[in-house]
TrEMBL record:
It comes from the Eukaryota. Residues 167-286 form the C2 domain. Pfam families: C2 (PF00168), PX (PF00787). GO terms for biological process: exocytosis. PANTHER family: BITESIZE, ISOFORM I. Coiled coil: none annotated. One of its GO terms (molecular function) is phosphatidylinositol binding. This is Uncharacterized protein. Residues 27-143 form the PX domain. SMART domains: C2 (SM00239), PX (SM00312). The lineage of its organism: Eukaryota, Metazoa, Chordata, Craniata, Vertebrata.
Amino acid sequence: MRFSGLPSNDEPLLSFSPRTYTLKQDGRIRDASIFTFQKRYSPEKHYTYVLRVHREGQSEAQFVSRTYDEFQELHSKLTILFALWKLPGFPNKMVLVRTHIKDVAARRKVELNNYVHNLLRSSTEVTQCDLVYTFFHPIGRDDKAEVFEGMSKPPEVPPISSRSGRVEGEVKLSVSYRNSTLFIMVMHIKGLVSDDGTDPNPYVKTYLLPDPQKTSKRKTKISRKTLNPTFNEMLVYSGYSKETLSQRELQLSVLSAESLRENCCLGGLTLSLKDFDLSRETVGWYKLTAVPSF
């Protein structure tokens, strides 16, 4: 069973696949499940779901990555092709305002895994159709995913940038130290940029590096709809000697809290604490630059 207007197997059934693939070409799928999900940054930030696919006659599993929209495209076309057949239900795309995007991706991983499980246990006509085999066939980007049994490639670290790619603005900080405690007062930010006609919802996040476990993360409150926020908020690091701090760097990021997408990075900076005289308070303006986020 095929769509009209697609007379040969050389023409794609799915928009993201260069051509059509069949059971005879690839070998029967014994089982498939979602192994993990990963953040991607090209062409824009999104999550992909990595499927582990086992086929008859193949000792090793294949791994393919698909987006939620690509799962939805498969389901929509199966619904057209098998209009009179009972197909598994597909997860709702609705995202509630203020829901964290990573939490949405984690929930969808479970829902999409159930969908795949039920789809591959549908009637033979459905499970062995070209649409299904095209969906599970590895394509060019899957060869670059470097996903292995039991582990996945660490996510790439995106550069901090505004939505337009420009980074502008300055942050006013107070740095002081007493009683084995480092105090970072985030005072003001001025001159942030916005290119889409809406003001950001900025907040500040800091780390003391090196910090492989990310235990030193601190955050300010969110300031709504402004390019020039005032925080006057103290971020505290207790239990550090001056000698230890002289080997640390303070990394600061300015981000915009977004309701329906990943938070947008607006700029950042890295300050070496050995350059500060911790015997007195230092107050100053520091220029935001494009630096890697942590």
